[in-house]
Design goal:
Distance between the termini: 17 Å
Number of strands: 4
Strand content: 25-35%
Order of helices and strands: HEEEE
Oligomer: single chain
Largest sheet: 2 strands, antiparallel
Number of helices: 1
Structural class: mainly beta
Radius of gyration: 17 Å
Strand order of the largest sheet: 1-2
Length: about 80
């Protein structure tokens, strides 16, 4: 849940608070299906890793944005906020 909340909160962020020159990137949780207990067939999941995937950032032409580069593009993390 923390990974999803962080991705949603930072989907339109152009840089981190600690480094204004570093673009943020979305993170992914790797989960493992596990039974809820020995007496049940119900399944749960446990996060076993948090990854920073290497996928290209989204570049949007917005020359009026203060975070735009010299070509007028602003870089955003690749985060899909649509529900499927």
């Amino acid at each position: 849940m923390d990974v999803a909340a962080s991705n949603l909160a930072n989907a339109q962020s152009t840089h981190s608070q600690t480094d204004p020159h570093a673009a943020l990137s979305g993170r992914e949780a790797v989960v493992l299906h596990q039974p809820d207990g020995p007496e049940t067939a119900a399944q749960g999941v446990s996060a076993i890793a948090i990854l920073n995937p290497t996928r290209p950032d989204v570049r949007v032409y917005d020359p009026g944005n203060p975070d735009a580069d010299t070509q007028g593009f602003v870089t955003y993390p690749t985060v899909d906020v649509s529900s499927r």
